[in-house]
């Protein structure tokens, strides 16, 4: 449902975010498809609504620059960049702090997180009222152009969002510059209105992924998370030394050595969703793969996950984990 921006619609939108729902909202770059970044199931809904075939990591948006210190490492260099360019159309890739409240779906299991403090007033009011950081990719169906007005969002995602905050056309119309500050040499992963020339006085020489006028998709550069041990898909039983990543009931899962899977100790068993809920499964996926990759297990056996809805994204990630 499309609503013009005013105090009432902003309040309603912030309540939807707190309830784990999706709200499309304007930023100074493009419209974002927002959800509570600390709620894994809410973040999983973003992937489903976009029809994104994989868990590409998301940008976490904050209302005040200093809000990021809770979940990422902020060096002096980073501080200087923030002071000059935030709020604004610059996304920073920074080292993720351990035990952060941010759902691992936002970082796609990577040790880094993309963060941005937008300058758009509607965006900042929404984040402030919601009281949580907001994860938001561009508010378009996967493979479509980024939306620069509320009508674009309506056309592309229509009834898949709980509310569209209509705040006119965006200023930049181009997604934010993505600057990786987690490596020794700062690297622009996605060019935007903040350019290398803008950043060089502060950072010195900058690597850029734009070569021969070609723009490499940042998604292509990602090392997706894969456990250090083999992952076996569509398992119907559990071998010796294997851990089990279950989905749904394990009543009929057996151990090759005899007995049932429910007798496995805690360090060898995680269930993505006992009720077979794909959203719950998506929100647990990265955390549970990490938990079973604990040095105790030789491999991870994964039960079949239905290849529908958000299950497609889960299987995409599992296939990557299994093939690397
Ligand atoms: O302007 C924008 O950035 C908009 C507004 C809504 O803020 N958002 C946006 O999000 O364009 P999205 O998801 O369409 O693009 C985010 C890009 C993706 O290419 C993703 O691969 C990259 O940022 N990215 C996110 N987290 C990353 C990480 N930890 N490391 C490397 N790249 C990352
Ligand atoms: Mg996009």
Summarize the structure.
With 324 residues, this protein is an alpha/beta fold.
SSE diagram, text form:
Blueprint: E1 2-4, H1 7-18, E2 23-25, E3 32-36, H2 40-50, E4 59-61, H3 76-85, E5 90-95, H4 104-107, E6 112-116, H5 121-130, E7 134-135, H6 150-157, E8 163-166, E9 177-180, E10 187-190, H7 196-203, E11 207-208, E12 210-211, E13 214-215, H8 218-221, E14 231-232, E15 237-238, E16 242-246, E17 254-255, E18 269-271, H9 278-292, E19 299-302, H10 310-323
Parallel strand pairs: 1-8, 2-8, 4-6, 5-9, 10-11, 14-19, 15-17, 16-18, 16-19
Antiparallel strand pairs: 2-3, 3-7, 4-7, 5-6, 9-10, 12-13
Helix pairs in contact: 1-5, 2-9, 9-10
The protein binds threonylcarbamoyladenylate and magnesium ion (MG).
What would you say this structure looks like, in words?
- There is one protein chain.
- By secondary structure, the protein is of the alpha/beta class.
- Helices cover 30% and strands 19% of the residues.
- The chain contains 10 helices and 19 strands.
- The chain has helices at residues 7-18, 40-50, 76-85, 104-107, 121-130, 150-157, 196-203, 218-221, 278-292, 310-323; strands at 2-4, 23-25, 32-36, 59-61, 90-95, 112-116, 134-135, 163-166, 177-180, 187-190, 207-208, 210-211, 214-215, 231-232, 237-238, 242-246, 254-255, 269-271, 299-302.
- The strands form 4 sheets. Strands 1-8-2-3-7-4-6-5-9-10-11 form an 11-stranded mixed β-sheet, sandwiched between helices. It has a 4-stranded parallel β-sheet with strand order 14-19-16-18. It has a two-stranded antiparallel ribbon with strand order 12-13.
- Strand 2 (23-25) and strand 3 form a beta hairpin.
- The protein is globular.
- Residues 210-218 and 220-224 have low confidence and may be disordered.
- Bound molecules: threonylcarbamoyladenylate and magnesium ion.
- Magnesium ion binds at residues 137-138, 146.
- The site of magnesium ion (MG) has 3 residues, from loops.
């Amino acid at each position: 449902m499309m609503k013009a921006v005013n105090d009432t619609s902003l309040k309603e939108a912030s309540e939807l975010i707190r309830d784990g729902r999706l709200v499309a909202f304007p930023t100074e770059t493009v419209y974002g498809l927002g959800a509570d970044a600390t709620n894994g199931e809410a973040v999983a809904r973003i992937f489903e609504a976009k029809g994104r075939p994989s868990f590409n990591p998301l940008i976490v948006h904050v209302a005040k620059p200093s809000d990021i210190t809770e979940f990422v490492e902020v060096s002096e260099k980073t501080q200087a960049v923030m002071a000059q360019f935030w709020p604004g159309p610059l996304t920073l890739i920074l080292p993720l702090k351990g035990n952060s409240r941010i759902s691992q779906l936002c970082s796609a299991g990577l040790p880094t997180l993309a963060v941005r403090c937008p300058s758009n007033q509607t965006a900042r009011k929404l984040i402030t009222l919601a009281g949580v950081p907001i994860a938001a990719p561009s508010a378009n169906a996967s493979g479509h152009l980024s939306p620069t007005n509320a009508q674009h969002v309506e056309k592309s995602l229509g009834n898949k969002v709980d509310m569209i905050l209509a705040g006119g056309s965006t200023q930049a119309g181009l997604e934010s510059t993505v600057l990786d500050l987690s490596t020794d040499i700062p690297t622009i992963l996605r060019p935007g209105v903040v350019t290398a020339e803008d950043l060089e006085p502060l950072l010195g020489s900058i690597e850029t992924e734009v070569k021969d006028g070609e723009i490499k998709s940042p998604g292509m550069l990602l090392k997706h998370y894969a456990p250090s041990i083999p992952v076996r898909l569509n398992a119907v039983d559990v071998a010796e030394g294997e851990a089990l990543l279950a989905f749904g009931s394990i009543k009929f899962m057996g151990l090759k050595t005899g007995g049932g899977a429910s007798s496995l100790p805690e360090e060898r068993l995680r269930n993505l969703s006992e009720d077979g809920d794909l959203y719950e499964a998506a929100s647990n996926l990265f955390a549970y793969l990490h938990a079973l990759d604990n040095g105790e297990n030789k491999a991870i056996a994964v039960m079949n996950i239905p290849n529908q809805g958000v299950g497609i994204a889960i299987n995409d990630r599992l296939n990557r984990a299994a093939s690397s």
